[in-house]
Amino acid sequence: MNDTVVKNIKSLILPKKTDQPLKGQEMDELEIIADAMVVIDEGKIVYAGAVTEVYDAKETIDAKGMIASPALVDPHTHVVHGGSREHEMSLKRQGVDYLKILEKGGGILNTVEQTRNASHEALFDKASKNITRMIQHGVLTVESKSGYGLDRENELKQLKVSREIHERFPIQMRHTYLGPHAVPKGRDNEEFLNEMIELLDEAQDYADFADIFCETGVFTVEQSRRYMEAARKRGLKVKIHADEIDPLGGLELAMEQNAISADHLVAASETGKSMLKDSDIVAVLLPGTTFYLGKEKFADARGMLDNGGAVSLATDYNPGSCVTDNLQMIMAIAALKLKMTPNEIWNAVTVNAAHAINADKGTLTEGDEANLVLWDAPNHEYIPYHYGVNHAHTVIAGGRTVYERPGLLSY
Ligand code: NIG
Ligand code: FE
């Protein structure tokens, strides 16, 4: 007898399991099964598809006509950090530019200060709240970056907190060392980069990936290349914050360095975008940052997809450029501003997001971890459509219900 059967699923969203990320036209293909069921045993999927046979199970979850999908994957977050920067909103309102705030010692450097001043426990408590909210919103796989320590002690502190979150919550995580995220005030750029390169030796014990912020006034393409080569020499896979604000050629560098993903890409060059189809790099788009920074120009998702590229979506949750941990909100912005179709969006936050961080999640095929979400929505197009609210009703991690939407208290 199996452990659990989830019955009365109105429609079941089944992204395709592949060895490579879905690209171009494939991203617009999504299997959706009407009148479905999911059978789970020992935390793994036994069956997910149309109601055919009767499966005996010890426990029955009645989906009551809701829709179901694999749990979502958020492949780019800065979830572990100290403090917040709500005061920057008024600066932004006055038109002060994001990179100008950083240049003046604010922005990322402000959060560095607050992260350095926070204990391991304080960082853990703060990140726990965000992770809890992510789970409540249907996310069970999360990538988490360091990058607010900018010295040995505090970068390792962030990575250790990230590891502890991984151990203590019912989620899958990937950890990324982002030592070169900004240059501390008064430090020589090259000398600081060398220090962060040396730190790779210790950081690699806690991290799956190495990342760098390649941007005007932060690190150049040449410096990013040096860092990525050093990381790869140590066996770490690389990622890059590329072409977010200025078109420096970060995407081309990501391809040259065989990066697993290139993230942001708002200002990526036409040449870079057209090369995506011949690489297995996932373009991780973060439209929540463009929205939050109040910019007009969003990443050219259509260009990337129509030219055969692999695209994913993430929150980039951080205290400065995108202050939301709700991936459903990003799905809505992707529909509205990136002109992505519902099928492309669902593939982007499941299978392709998993590929972007080398995580084996995002599908519901036999043998997969039983990580799924029951959505209180009439169909899969509805979630990006009805924006800004949580549609997740029940979240099941490894076959166990870890969240169920509470109703009102008695009144
Ligand atoms: O991905 N662009 C660089 N890093 C973050 C922002 C971090 C911050 O503002 O604190 C990002 O957008
Ligand atoms: Fe980021």
Show unreliable segments. none
CATH evolutionary superfamily of the largest domain: Metal-dependent hydrolases
**CATH class group of the largest domain:** Alpha Beta
Mean pLDDT value: 96
Going by helix content, strand content and strand pairing, the class is alpha/beta
Shape: globular
Q: Tell me how many strands there are.
A: 16
In helices, the fraction of residues equals: 25-40%
CATH topology of the largest domain: the name is TIM Barrel
Please describe what this structure looks like:
By secondary structure, this protein is of the alpha/beta class. It folds into 2 domains: 112 residues, Urease, subunit C, domain 1 (Roll); 283 residues, TIM Barrel (Alpha-Beta Barrel), CATH 3.20.20. Helices cover 33% and strands 22% of the residues. Strands 1, 2, 3, 4, 5, 14, 15 and 16 form an 8-stranded mixed beta sheet that branches. Strand 11, helix 9 and strand 12 form a beta-alpha-beta unit. Helix 5 packs parallel to helix 6 and helix 6 runs parallel beside helix 7. The protein is globular. It binds N-(iminomethyl)-L-glutamic acid (NIG) and fe (iii) ion. N-(iminomethyl)-L-glutamic acid binds next to helix 3.
